[in-house]
Amino acid sequence: MVDSTVLTAAEVADPAPRRRRSLGRKVLANWSVRLGGGFLCLLLLMALAAPWLGTIDPTEMDPGSGNLLPGTVAEFNSLSGESFRHWFVMGTDSLGRDIWSRVVFGARVSLVVGVAVAAITLVFGLAIGLLAGYFRRLDGIIMRVMDGVMAIPGILFAVSLVAMFGGTMTTVVLAIAVPEIPRVARLVRSVVLSVREEPYVEAAVALDTPTWKVMLRHILPNAVAPLVIQATYVCAAAILVEAILSFLGVGLPAETATWGNIMAEGRAQFNQYPHNVLFPGALLALTVLSINMLGDGLRDALDPKFNKRGE
Question: What pTM, to 2 d.p., does this model score?
Answer without folding.
Answer: 0.82
